[in-house]
Amino acid sequence: MTQTSGQARLDQFYTDLGEYDLKPLWPIAMELMPLEPRPRTVPWLWRWKTLRELAEPATPATCTPATWSSRRAGPGTTTTPPASGR
Known about the structure:
This protein has a domain of 33 residues. It is 43% helix and 0% strand. The radius of gyration is 26 Å and the shape is elongated. The N and C termini lie far apart (72 Å).
């Protein structure tokens, strides 16, 4: 098999995949998962004290008996209040 026929077969394979809206991962695998991390985000530290102060006013409004039932895990689960952490 020559390089040209191998490339032609590969091109045809990609075309066949495309007909099913599929794309191979291997051509871009190193871009998605490089050997060394290349973070594009900025690390941030959320202080618990600040978050708690922001969340406290929302607790009475969101944790009512009417909303407990919407927090159930599945059929047959009782409507007990969520843990408060206190």
